[in-house]
What does this fold into?
Amino acid sequence: MTLLLRSGQGVLTLLLCLVALVRLPLLAPDAPFPFGMETTALILLLIAIGALVSFLPIGRLARVSVLLVTAHLAAWLLIGGISGNEGQARLSYFLLIAASWLLGWRCISELAEIKPSSRQFTMALRLLIPAIFGAWILILWEAITRGAGIPFILLPPPSAIWDRITGSLPILAADVRQTILKAVLFGYLVGCAAGFIVAILADRVAFLRRGLLPIGNLMSALPIIGVAPIMVMWFGFDWQSKAAVVIVMTFFPMLVNTVAGLGASGSIERDLMRSYASGYWQTLCKLRLPAAMPFIFNALKINSTLALIGAIVAEFFGTPIVGMGFRISTEIGRMNVDMVWAEIAVAALIGSVFYGVVALAERATTFWHPSNRGG
Amino acid sequence: MPDHITRTNLRTHRTHGWPHRMTASPASVVSARKLGLTFQTNDGPVHALSDVDLEVEKGDFVSFIGPSGCGKTTFLRVIADLEKNTGGEISVNGMTPEEARKARAYGYVFQAPALYPWRTIENNVALPLEIMEYSKAEQKQRVQRTLDLVNLAGFGNKYPWQLSGGMQQRASIARALAFDADLLLMDEPFGALDEIVRDHLNAQLLKLWATTEKTICFVTHSIPEAVYLSTKIVVMSPRPGRVTDVIESTLPRERPLDIRETPEFLAIAHRVREGLRAGHSYEE
It folds into this structure.
């Protein structure tokens, strides 16, 4: 009994295997490319081995390695056999997918309980666990869309999206160049710099502080959907108008955060600078800006995602025939949903990298802040 | 009876004739006359300081003691030009406090260490030197010297948050010493530390005072601390903040920690306590 309790997923997996065995074959009788006997047997065997090993007291690392191999090999075989047989999967197919998913789950939960012994190992675990997790999202997505024959228009399987990405690299590259490298990067840099400079001016000049900050507030409330067509009217169809939208969107978060950050230094620290007869700029550079860094990085992170959204949405309102937003809006009209998903995937990837770079710079700059000291 | 002696000293001090111009005797570092400071608040004016007369001479170690709200910190802040007096006159090194501040005449040690967490201890101590535009070589040499002075050599590369509270406060003293101001203003610098660390730092501070020959103004809540450290103890009382007694210490300048058990020490402590009590009954 204690042996069974050791792995709940293992018990469930074996049960699913049994039911699947009774309900074979995996695909409908008229499927064009049915699973061979050997393949089906191999899949069942792999899953059974994985489930049984999960009970064995053979050391965590050994269990994890066996689970890792069996779960993913079984899933690989299952997914490999379904392509071409869209919509032909029977209950037993989904039961086996569920069974291998349970093994994958078991694998992750065993991994999560490992107490890493070295730094490299910690890093590897931190990458491996979310990687397996993400892989399973894709595996389930692929198996369900293909197995159940979900219409391509509603949700294409990830393999089709991947094929589209690899097949249209030149188009995607041109879109990235237009939208990210021109509009987003330029708009982000100019918008953040302008917000920062105006914040310092407002700090120095009381008249700006009183007059401009409330107006800035108003600017932040402008709906981007309304601003984008105006910017296209002002700056033309090319990337300049998108950069303008990005500037409008990123300016205000930076302004507000920098103003808040400049007020963040303590009164004792400021008295200290006064006791040294320190000038305005010296106090700014040596005390107030370093103290404002956590706030400024906060704005940089918020803006990294805002800029991407702004540039893509702005392209819906007129562009030359290139750009990520343009591609999304035209390809959806032509029912090329896989291209839309390809653009979404690329945008998500670039957005994550963008955010990650800013977050890394933050950790290097504000290592002293209580929230970063541990790591 | 030491009580008798100090009282005599006190009388001479009080009857000491004030010079007519603000430039007091050349040895006078801080000279306050009828000094007053009133804060305007929503609940009406608050008299933080009223009619304070005081002379601090070169090389003095002056302690300010009194209950909260007696204006001892405010007085220190007026000397430092962090507050402006609203009445009377005050001179620091023969100048107005503002001129003295601009001439970098004093180092200020606050209640909290106020070290910048993004700078190492070394760079924190170098901060005033950077602002005052000392050369790189000079900065390095001064940082080394002052860190040695407060026994923090070898900790220069640490960040403040990696050090204990006592070490942080020592680093902040090093920072105040780094640019060789003759006047050191200390506002309850050891208030947040435990008694054992505090004793240790007090002994170190006396040694430091002896080697550097600075003039020190020291605000404290603790009677033993005030008596142990000072050549002159200023007893203050609240509402309005004013000086009730000025006690010249008869203890020698060389003071081991166990001097605190001698009758002479206890007599001065008693005198301070009496002064504090008198100020309190006056209020009621």
Notes: Chain B has two domains: 57-105+181-284, 115-180. Confidence is low (pLDDT under 50) at residues 1-24 of chain B. The two ends of chain B are 31 Å apart (CA to CA).
